[in-house]
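Key result, reporting period 2: structure in, sequence out.
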């Protein structure tokens, strides 16, 4: 990442052979303790060089799976049209947070709308109408694309996916020295524990469905 005689010599050597770099950002960003203070270091030692005539896409994957960010290169071929096999399903968004909001809104609504109602049929009609309205509001039907990847780990919910994204963003901020690394570490450990718990609960439910059926138990295993 530093401009000096060594980097210029290396770059000129590669370019003279019609080879050009595709990775232009630091592939390792770390907080290093020096003289009692944390300092951010940035290095680019993971390279992919290609012929300049190749149409390509390249970049980094900001992930915590290793000390160095994974890098990728995709050689583009316009004649190929890749399409992942997937299917669209429709489901309701239901989670603990939405359930709490729904219960609170329903209780408040019923308190306000049924105080002056004396007829049971009228009270039930208002209750049914308000229940349906709030149910559709807090648990809407949405479309969701199911891919092969999501089928491999069905216990990873949308909420966990969002938390994984937050974890990766915290890693970036930590590597850039914008937040204390302990903030990222604490959140990472929490997400890891939640993933393990979700996986265990999913398999417990699957085994419970197959209880007493040896063939199904073997399929789950």
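The corresponding designed sequence is given below.
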């Amino acid at each position: 990442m530093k401009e000096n005689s060594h980097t210029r010599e290396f770059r000129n050597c590669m370019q003279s052979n019609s080879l050009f770099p595709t990775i232009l950002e630091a592939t390792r960003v770390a907080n290093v303790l020096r003289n009692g203070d944390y300092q951010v270091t940035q290095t680019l030692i993971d390279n992919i060089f290609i012929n300049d005539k190749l149409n390509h896409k390249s970049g980094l994957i900001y992930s915590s799976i290793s000390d160095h960010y994974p890098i990728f290169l995709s050689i583009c071929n316009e004649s190929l049209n890749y399409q992942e096999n997937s299917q669209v399903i429709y489901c309701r968004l239901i989670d603990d947070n939405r359930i709490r909001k729904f219960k609170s809104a329903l209780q408040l609504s019923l308190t306000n709308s049924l105080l002056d109602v004396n007829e049971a049929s009228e009270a039930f009609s208002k209750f049914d109408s308000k229940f349906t309205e709030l149910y559709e509001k807090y648990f809407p039907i949405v479309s969701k694309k199911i891919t092969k990847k999501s089928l491999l780990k069905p216990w990873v919910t949308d909420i966990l996916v969002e938390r994984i994204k937050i974890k990766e963003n915290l890693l970036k901020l930590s590597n850039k020295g914008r937040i204390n690394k302990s903030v990222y570490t604490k959140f990472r450990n929490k997400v890891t524990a939640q993933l393990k718990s979700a996986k265990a609960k999913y398999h417990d439910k699957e085994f419970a469905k197959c209880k007493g059926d040896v063939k199904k138990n073997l399929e789950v295993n």
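Residues 174 and 181 are 5 Å apart (CA to CA). The chain has three domains: 5-75, 94-139, 147-220. This case is discussed further under Risks and Mitigation.
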